[in-house]
Amino acid sequence: MSITTFTTDSSSTEAPPTSGLRVDIADIAVVVVYFIFVMIVGIWASVQANRSTVGGYFLAGRSMTWWPIGASLMSSNVGSGLFIGLAGTGAAGGVAVGGFEWNAAWVLVALGWIFIPVYISANVVTMPEYLAKRFGGRRIRIYMSVLSLILYIFTKISTDIFSGALFIQMSFGWDLYLSTGILLLVTAAYTVAGGLAAVIYTDALQTVIMVGGALTLMFIAFSKVGWYQGLVDGYMSAVPSVTVANTSCHLPRSDAFRMFRDPVSGDLPWPGLIFGLTVLATWVWCTDQVIVQRSLSARSVSHAKGGSVLGGYLKLLPMFFIVMPGMISRTLFPDEVGCVDPVVCQSVCGASVGCSNIAYPKLVVELMPVGVRGLMLAVMLAALMSSLTSIFNSSATLFTLDLYHRARPRASEMELMVVGRVFILVLVCVSLLWIPVIQTANSGQLFDYIQSVTSFLAPPITAVFLMAIFWPRANEQGAFWGLMSGLLVGLIRMVLEFSYEVPACGQVDLRPAILADVHYLYFALILLAITSMVIVVVSLVTAPIPEEHVRDMWTTYSILTLKGQFRPLLLRTWQTHEKMAESEVCKALSPTHTHFPTPKSREKISDFSCRDTASSCGHFVSLRSI
């Protein structure tokens, strides 16, 4: 889970004032080489992948191993917005924001050991599809699909585009539309051509570039301030030369180096950071299509678990190569990064509310030598492109399988492939059209909106998935009305949130108590509790769900595994149907599919798979992980 709270309010396509520094020809050469290398990897993955079927295009033929999955989990979440936003928040408030990254480590373990086995046993491709199988009916599936697409288009894509464009402006001074348009078109090119396989392999490459480049900058930055102790001393005395009279806005927080802060007065209270953040992180890492789709492409449950473990370890790193470098940037450049006077801030970065958002780009253009600076620009481009490719592919999956295929159930495989590719192009066009909205809007409110939307909409979704997996009595009526009640409460909070502005430092807080006194992480817990209670009450007063839907649960999977019944069950199934037509084997193991698997499906029984070539058999069970 990541947080983006940086602000800027320029409405021009011109570079901000701090963009006087330009990159060298050698830096541009590094970026060009990076683009060429990424395109080569994307083309190679496209050629290697089976792109002619639904399973091959959207799930990479379910053939991925653990290391590209883990790398893709990291890069799919770490967009350019994370580099700029996380470093900026660290510069303004200290290390506590790194808890958003560390929390993801153990939530990813839950993804691999609890959620993925259920999704695979349910034989699903999308998360709305799982809810439809678990509860029955269509309204929950449609609601989840539409909601996810709206969130992807107007929050994730816009965040990455805006922050990536900010970095490009500061480094190159390029026109915003030209640079962003080129990035989107190149990104969409190999996403459309290669599907999830191309996305995962390019993500793996870009993860290596991101981690390597960010670690390089981290060591250079730490050496400039005298390593960790120098950072502690320097940050606490990083005060701008121009301040606002009778305020303490210019002073660093006294708890800047504390991860767990006061539960009442802290900007990130520790109970919210542990429990409330887990609610939001469960939505991001365990139920969001962008993330889960990578794990569903694994060739076995063991590889899915291995990918989760690797992703968890990688998520420990942003604290050190993003948050702390952001704090170092304030230490080295207090007048620019730590400015508080509106006039000064406007002249520095074009935003009167503060310039903490330039913390990471400022380090890059000031500290990195020629050539290596180009590598860091490539890192930012890698973060932007990897995040966008993940969103493009997952959005196309949701639209094609959950919306279009439901409207045209007789659509052919070729038609679904064409629709998925065309929808990605539509997303590119919408993204380009969204750029003027990002520029003309008050960007501080925009990114506050992005952060708030998570706390307003994620808890009900988290509650429904938890009930679906752990409580057999939860039914469709309970889940639907739980989602609706949670949405209503969240919208009420959102309307209030944007009806009142957050007071500036030194101003009296005139907002209602629900805004001033209830932190959004606490609100996430409250919303989870409300949604869960509605699900329980409505489910208990309505008819139980049919038995056929209750099988797709973690308890069913785990009990069979613990009793040793899962392996013999599959073994008997294989022996019984060994001599049957391959289509009948696939049908026996996956009642919802009757397509022919490839000869590769006759692998040794320790890793049985039913994969597809001519069509999407889709079913997958691995004995290796049991």
TrEMBL record:
Q: Which Pfam families match?
A: SSF
Output the InterPro entries linked to this UniProt entry.
Na/solute_symporter, Na/solute_symporter_CS
Q: Which GO terms describe its molecular function?
A: D-glucose:sodium symporter activity
| A GO cellular component entry from the record | plasma membrane
Going by the UniProt record, its keywords in alphabetical order are: Glycoprotein, Ion transport, Membrane, Sodium, Sodium transport, Transmembrane, Transmembrane helix, Transport
Where is this protein found? Membrane
Which residue spans traverse the membrane?
A: 25-45, 66-92, 104-125, 146-170, 176-201, 208-227, 268-286, 307-328, 375-404, 416-437, 449-471, 478-500, 520-543
Q: Does the keyword Membrane apply?
A: yes
> Taxonomically, which superkingdom?
Eukaryota
Question: How does the UniProt record describe the way this protein sits in the membrane?
Answer: Multi-pass membrane protein
* First-listed, main subcellular location of the protein, grouped into a coarse class: membrane
Q: Which PANTHER family match?
A: SODIUM_GLUCOSE COTRANSPORTER 4, SOLUTE CARRIER FAMILY 5
Concerning its family, UniProt says: Belongs to the sodium:solute symporter (SSF) (TC 2.A.21) family.
Name used for this protein in its record:
Sodium/glucose cotransporter 4
Identify the species of origin.
Solea senegalensis (Senegalese sole)
